[in-house]
Each structure stands twice: as structure tokens, then as C-alpha cells.
Amino acid sequence: MGLRGADQILRTAVERAGLSGKGISTHSTRRSFITKLAKRGVSLATIKKATGHTDLKVLSRYIEVTDDDVKQAIATL
């Protein structure tokens, strides 16, 4: 099964669960996965290898950083 098949299965499950319009997609789950790994301290090199990215610049676009994340980072100083 390819990405299109996985996407269709997820879309069908989201519709059946009544969660349409909640922004759930294969892309959003990938973004959540990558963000959670980064927040737990997993190295970017490891995340890059696990997700199949070849470019750290592209990978970094998937990592969500909130204002609270920035505040917490500064607070560690």
C-alpha cells in the first residue's frame, strides 16, 4: 500500500469517527510525530533517518515551536 492508500484509509476512518474538519490527515500525524520526538530530545539526525528526510531544512518545517516552547528554552538558562 502506498501513501495514497494510507491517506484514503485515514480519511475514511476520520469520517466514520465524526472527526471531519478537525485537521486530521497523514500530514498532520507526521507533523505531530516529528514534533513529539523533537520535544522529547531525540536528535534531529535520528528523526531525519526515522522519517526518511534527506534535508534538515525540510525536516525543520515539520517541528512546531510554540511561544511557550521558546519561553521554556530561555528559562533553562
In brief:
The protein is mainly alpha-helical and 77 residues long. The protein is 65% helix and 0% strand. The chain has helices at residues 3-16, 26-39, 44-51, 56-60, 67-75.
Describe the fold and architecture.
- The chain is mainly alpha-helical and 77 residues long.
- The chain has a domain at 23-75.
- It contains 5 helices and no strands.
- The chain is flat and about 45 Å long.
Oligomer: single chain
Order of helices and strands: HHHHH
Arithmetic mean pLDDT? 88
Mass-distribution shape:
flat
Counting DSSP H or I runs of 4 or more residues, the number of helices is 5
Give the termini separation. Answer: 47 Å
Please state the structural category: mainly alpha
- The percentage of residues in β strands lies in under 5%
Please summarize the sheet with the most strands. none
DSSP summary, beta strand count: 0
